[in-house]
Structure formats: C-alpha cells, structure tokens
C-alpha cells in the first residue's frame, strides 16, 4: 500500500511541474497588463464605494476584465454610468474588453467598480487589495481610499 502511494506521487510530480510551467507562460501575458491610478471613493457609513483606475493592455491581443474581488468587501460589481433624460443611471456590465495596445479608464460618470458591503471599517488613506479577473487570470491591484470630493 505504501509502495503504491509513493509510486503514485512520483507520477503526480512531473504532471504538477508541467502545469506550473504552463501557468508561467500564461502569466507572462498578464504582466503586459498594468493598472495605474487606482482609487476607491468611499462615503461614511455602508453605502457602496466606487473604484476608478486606468488599465493598459500592452499585449498584442484583446483582454477581457470579467470581475473583481476583495477580502474587504462582500462583493464587487462592474458598473457603467450613463445619462438618460438628464438623469444619471448606472447598470451592471458582464465584462469590459480592452483591445491590444489600448488603455481603458474607469472614471467618474463612466465605467467603475462598485464595492458592495464593506467587511471592515475603512478611512481615507487606507489601502485596499483588490484582485481583478482578467481572462481567468488574477491581477492584484492596490486601491487607495480617497474622499469623493477629491475626484
Ligand atoms: Cu455603480
């Protein structure tokens, strides 16, 4: 029994190594994607926060942002603001595609991340770790907590 187990392990090891090398290749692609100017606008209380940033796709193929996650919030949604009959509205979007060589700005009155239900108190000057999901690959980004008045 013991022998059978260690034999099985020996077979598993090369497979895991192969997977790690494959993952490495995919990550090289993700490193062509960079995020800057990431800020999270929060009001006091537990109203949703809005996240803004610039994402640059330095790779040679289109990338798709499909979501975001943070341990500091219950959920993060992708939203788009628009004006309709002079009134501001926002609605959820499934994903945002960024073409090769393009920079896309999540900005006030446009696309934003909506941070729902904070799980711990946050104040101006704090930093929040967020993981963006880009084509199934995690991209960690640090957001600075700012006051809405600074935007
Ligand atoms: Cu929103």
Question: What this model shows, in words?
Answer:
- The chain has 151 residues and is of the alpha+beta class.
- Strands 1, 2, 3, 4, 5, 6, 7, 8, 9 and 10 form a ten-stranded mixed beta sheet that branches.
- It is 19% helix and 50% strand.
- It folds into two domains: 1-31; 33-150, Immunoglobulin-like (Sandwich).
- The termini are far apart.
- Copper (II) ion binds next to strand 8.
Give a quick set of tags describing it.
globular, 2 domains, 151 residues, 19% helix, ten-stranded mixed sheet, binds copper (II) ion
Can I get a quick summary?
Helix content is 19%, strand content 50%. It has one helix at 2-30; strands spanning 33-41, 49-57, 63-69, 73-84, 87-92, 96-98, 103-106, 111-118, 127-134, 137-146. The protein is globular and about 40 Å long.
């Amino acid at each position: 029994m013991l022998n059978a187990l260690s034999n099985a392990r020996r077979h598993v090891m090369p497979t895991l190594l192969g997977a790690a090398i494959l993952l490495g290749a995919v990550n090289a692609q993700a490193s062509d994607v960079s995020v800057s100017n990431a800020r999270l606008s929060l009001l006091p209380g537990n109203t949703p926060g809005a996240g803004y940033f610039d994402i640059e796709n330095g790779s040679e193929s289109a990338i798709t942002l499909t979501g975001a996650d943070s341990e500091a919030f219950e959920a993060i949604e992708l939203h788009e603001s628009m004006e309709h009959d002079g009134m501001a509205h926002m609605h959820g979007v499934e994903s945002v595609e960024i073409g090769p060589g393009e920079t896309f700005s999540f900005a006030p009155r446009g696309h934003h991340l909506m941070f729902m239900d904070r799980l711990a108190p946050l104040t101006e000057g704090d930093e929040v770790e967020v993981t963006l999901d880009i084509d199934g690959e995690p991209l960690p980004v640090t957001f600075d907590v700012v006051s809405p008045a600074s935007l």
